[in-house]
Amino acid sequence: MEFDNKYPIYRQLFEMLLSDIINGKLKPGDKFISIREASSKYNLNPNTVTNAFKELELHKIAVTKRGLGTFVTEDTEVLNNLTKKHSEKIVDDFLSKMYSLGYKKDEIISIIHERGEKNE
Length: 120
Prior knowledge:
By secondary structure, the protein is mainly alpha-helical. The protein folds into 2 domains: 9-74, Arc Repressor Mutant, subunit A; 77-119. Helices cover 62% and strands 7% of the residues. The chain contains 5 helices and 2 strands; from the N terminus they run αααββαα. The protein has helices spanning 9-22, 35-42, 46-58, 76-100, 105-119, and strands at residues 62-65, 69-72. A two-stranded antiparallel ribbon has the order 1-2. α1 crosses α3 and α2 packs across α3. The chain is elongated, with a radius of gyration of 18 Å. The model has no long low-confidence stretch (mean pLDDT 95). This is GntR family transcriptional regulator. InterPro entries: Tscrpt_reg_HTH_GntR (IPR000524), WH-like_DNA-bd_sf (IPR036388), WH_DNA-bd_sf (IPR036390).
């Protein structure tokens, strides 16, 4: 993975791990790779990886068990909220772009219906 230096690297790693959870690559109760492994895999300073894991814990997405490692939470409410927030962000970004192109609400809805029928 390549990181963008304009944006905090720990935050990019945090978002990548979130994406892995939302997309099902990491499931509830799965163990994250260790800080040392992640540092090596992504060629990052261990402190950067630690900050990403702390961010996951802060949002109650990860649970660290002393001596065992860090795991994806098994709290379905937390995970459902994570997925909901992610999907809302996607929709908000989409709508913002469509409005900036000059589309009106009804036109956007029409486009979504058309594309949805083609993709079913």
